[in-house]
Automatic annotation (TrEMBL):
Domain Phosphomannose isomerase type I catalytic: from-to ranges: 7-115
Positions bound to Zn(2+): H103, E120, H178
CDD domains according to UniProt: cupin_PMI_type_I_N_bac
Gene3D superfamilies named in the record: Jelly Rolls
Pfam families in UniProt: PMI_typeI_cat (PF20511)
InterPro entries per record: Carb_Metab_Reg_Kinase/Isom (IPR051804), Man6P_isomerase_Firm_short (IPR014628), PMI_typeI_cat (IPR046457), RmlC-like_jellyroll (IPR014710), RmlC_Cupin_sf (IPR011051)
Note describing how the cofactor binds: Binds 1 zinc ion per subunit.
Keywords recorded for this protein, A-Z: Isomerase, Metal-binding, Zinc
The protein, known as: Mannose-6-phosphate isomerase
Length: 322
């Protein structure tokens, strides 16, 4: 099978906090005024991505993995994750504040939900003036103090707020309380998991007039109550170089700002490569073909590729491997 660079049909998700930036800024085919997420590459059951370009158009990611597991993913990835695609790639538009939430680690997620945990990172693509993220507590707290803040509706007083702009990057460990604030458009890279513990939702009601479910008890033993300032990613930004951003057990992410092309020998890279285009446009080629992507689009390059050639007059990319 010819594993040319693969594009996928976006899986669009309406959210009560969503807006129109996925359409207005990223050009997604959306009619809704409350689209919050575009799942670009997903192996989550019930939301499996489907190829949208070339001879394999219409083939699901899961079908392709079954046929071309090690060639597509890499031997070490298959040895570790089997036939599960290990990460989930999204663009997220928050017109309103998201709920304050956290995610369990691998052990707890496996025990409770038969799922992976959810370590994630964010890259801010667009932010309204004054837009903020919530990341962690503004001081170390005891569990009892946290519970009291829920009872007295004072949790927001314990939150750490980070004003953001384009290019800001955050690494969110499992257990860290967090929320995307109104006015932020970002790229998210995470483990393949949809397990979220929502602990505060601004008393909002869903489209049926009901308060959304909170997961107060489940969150208690999953939460990191300490104050840690390890979440802001300070990465080099040297033009026409591969700039390391995040290197964690679940994924590695680099930032590329290219004014000219780049050729990479990937013969020894035992992993697939994902490119999320966060600015400009480019053509990405491997041994078997090429794909054009622009801001807001994503491409998957097979592990069996012996090279990756990026042809551009100007592009910003997040490069993701395992």
């Amino acid at each position: 099978m010819t594993l040319y660079p693969l594009k996928f049909k976006p899986i669009l998700k309406e959210r009560l906090w969503g807006g129109t930036k996925l359409k207005d800024v990223l050009g997604k085919p959306i009619d809704s005024e409350i689209t919050g997420e575009s799942w670009e590459l997903s192996g989550v059951a019930g939301d499996i991505s489907e190829i949208s370009n070339g001879a394999l158009i219409g083939t699901s990611l899961q079908e392709l993995i079954q046929e071309e597991g090690k060639n597509l993913l890499g031997k070490s990835v298959v040895d570790r994750f089997g036939r599960d695609f290990p990460i989930l790639i999204k663009f997220i538009d928050a017109k309103q504040d998201l709920s304050i939430q956290l995610h369990p680690n691998d052990d707890l997620a496996k025990k409770r939900h038969n799922s992976f945990g959810k370590t994630e990172m964010w890259y801010v693509m667009d932010a309204d003036p004054g837009a903020k993220l919530i990341v962690g507590f503004n001081k170390s707290v005891e569990k009892e103090e946290y519970i009291k803040s829920l009872e007295e509706n004072t949790l927001l007083d314990l939150m750490n707020y980070e004003e953001v702009e384009e290019g800001d990057t955050f690494f969110i460990n499992t257990g860290k309380i967090h929320a995307i604030g109104a006015g932020v458009l970002l790229a998210e890279i995470q483990q393949t998991s949809d397990v979220t513990y929502r602990v505060f939702d601004f008393n909002r009601k869903d489209k049926n007039g009901n308060l959304r479910e909170l997961h107060t008890e489940l969150a208690l033993d999953a939460m990191d109550y300490s104050k840690k300032d390890d979440f802001k990613v300070n990465y080099p930004n040297k033009a026409d170089f591969i700039n390391p951003m995040v290197d964690c057990p679940y994924f590695k992410t680099n930032f590329l700002e290219l004014g000219t092309g780049m050729h990479q020998d990937t013969t020894l890279r035992d992993s697939f490569t994902i490119y999320m285009c966060v600015g400009g446009e480019t053509e990405i080629a491997n041994d078997w073909g090429s794909a054009f992507i622009k801001k807001g689009e994503t491409v998957l390059v097979a592990a069996s590729s012996s090279f990756i050639n990026i042809k551009t007059q100007g592009v910003k990319l997040l490069e993701v491997t395992i």
